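Team,

Forwarding the record for the chain on the shared tracking sheet. I've put the sequence and predicted structure together so nobody has to dig through attachments.
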Amino acid sequence: QVQLVESGGGLVQPGGSLRLSCAASGMIFSINTMGWYRQTPGKQRELVASITSGGTTTYADSVKGRFTISRDNAKNTAYLQMNSLKPEDTAVYYCNRIFRPLSWGQGTQVTVSP
């Protein structure tokens, strides 16, 4: 059964850092382009970062220079290192493959607040 499990969220002060993890199972993780998305109440889910099987990364303008996406194919895990966090980064963060997305996991809540 294909499963995506996000973890690593929490409450952090502005300027702080968090590292999110996305553990994938039931799929050939290494060949898939993976993405991190986020969603706030009443808004559409937005893609914030992606990484190809070869390690090429892309970022939304709003997180460029602050977030870093990476992957460990041996562990079937994708990561999102988030630095210099801002209150507007508060959201539920999800991971999924970019092409032919799977069922969404539960996500992990990130709250940036003084």
